[in-house]
Amino acid sequence: MPNHTKILSHLDWLEAESIHIMREVAGQCSNPALLFSGGKDSIVMLRLAEKAFRPGRFPFPLLHVDTGHNYREVIDFRDFRAHQLGERLIVRNVEDSMKRGSVVLKTPTESRNKHQSVTLLEAIEEFGFDCCIGGARRDEEKARAKERIFSFRDSFGQWDPKNQRPELWNLFNARVHKGENIRAFPISNWTELDIWQYIEREALELPSIYFAHKRPVIRKNGLLQPVTDVTPAKPGDVIEEMLVRFRTVGDITCTAPVESDADTVHKIIEETATTTITERGATRMDDQTSEASMEQRKKEGYF
Fold first, then answer.
1. Alpha carbon 250 to chain centroid distance?
2. Domains in the chain, please, with CATH?
3. Phi and psi of 94, rounded to 5°?
4. CA dist., res. 265 & res. 206, Å (int)
5. Contact 102/118 with Cβ under 8 angstroms?
6. pLDDT band with cut points at 50, 70 and 90 for residue 194
7. How far apart are CA 128 and CA 150, in angstroms?
8. What is the distance between the alpha carbons of residues 295 and 287, in angstroms, rounded to a whole number?
9. Hey, is 254 helix, strand or coil?
10. What is the distance of C-alpha 300 from the center of its chain?
11. pLDDT tens-digit profile of 34-71?
């Protein structure tokens, strides 16, 4: 008899694991939310949620913490995609936390990126979320590699890497007391290359800044700082018009593009497969100092 067993690709295995994790969140948590920024990883998360729960509605709203200094292309895509799916999008702003006094900048030009944790914790308290589903991957950064898939946060919203639950045989425990919460990371085991291969396979739409385009930049500390209203050139800066793209997107003050002529997903896959620099190492200005270390920020409640 012919064997009709389908041979699963590595993307099929990753997809199946992620869908299982999302369904575990839906089954164990009473009031979860999916963090959606409009970036490539959260776009993949939306597709996984579609496959996990369609034709029904998602069993959670979408949540974004906006610094007020995000790239317009990404914010517009965030709103477009949420509307296209017909899902509820909750946006909470760091600027509102600043008005309340719960976020205080050291200087007017200080990056708001690390202060997102305060606004996130305020949103968790406001809506009573017991789980936030995020798109972090273990290959991104050392602190994220320490994360469990179901990452426990105490009643202060803080993360203790030494006080996490075992996940033997991929058994997940989302039980929490009132005020505590879980951060769930369904794509923990994916790599940047996996993300782009999945985007290609699923023909997912993306914000235009992920593809090569001309942009004025300044070379600083080995990175390319974009010239924008938020990050203007200073006296003595040399502005160059370069062909660049973004590997990751976030707050303008800390997200740098990379020089690239990759203007299609296939070209990005080829470029990603040969790069020797990590995604955050090549593009995140806030990861260049010990003060802004990811582990410390995660302990304070960061995504």
1. 8
2. 10-193+292-299 (3.40.50.620), 204-287 (no CATH)
3. -60, -35
4. 10
5. yes
6. very high
7. 18
8. 11
9. coil
10. 17
11. 999 999 999 999 999 999 999 999 999 999 999 999 99
Q: Give the chain's length.
A: 303
What angle in degrees, to the nearest 10, is found between the helix axes of 40-53 and 192-202? 60
- Whether the CB-CB separation of 32 and 131 falls below 8 Å is answered with yes
Residue 137 φ/ψ, nearest 5 degrees: -125, 150
Q: Which two tokens stand for residue 115?
A: 């202060």
The radius of gyration of the chain from alpha carbons, rounded to an integer in Å, stands at 19
Question: What is the CA angle 271-243-224, rounded to 5?
Answer: 85
Q: Report the chain's mean pLDDT, rounded to a whole number.
A: 87
Asked whether the bond before 55 is cis by omega within 30 degrees of 0, the reply is: yes
Which residue is listed with tokens 């990056």? 111
Provide the residue type at 273 as one letter: A
d(CA 206, CA 32): 25
Q: At what angle do helices 72-85 and 40-53 cross, to 10 degrees?
A: 10
Let me know if 275 is exposed, middle or buried by CB neighbors in 10 A (0-12, 13-18, 19+). middle
pLDDT at 287 over 80: no
User: Which strands sit side by side in the sheet containing 62-66, from one edge to the other?
Assistant: 89-93, 62-66, 32-35, 131-133, 181-184, 150-153
Cα(260)–Cα(100) distance, rounded to whole angstroms? 41
**In the chain, what percentage of residues exceed pLDDT 70?**
85
pLDDT band at 167 (very low <50, low <70, confident <90, very high): low
d(CA 41, CA 206): 10
DSSP β-bridge partners for residue 150: 184
- Here the tokens at position 211 are 């593809």
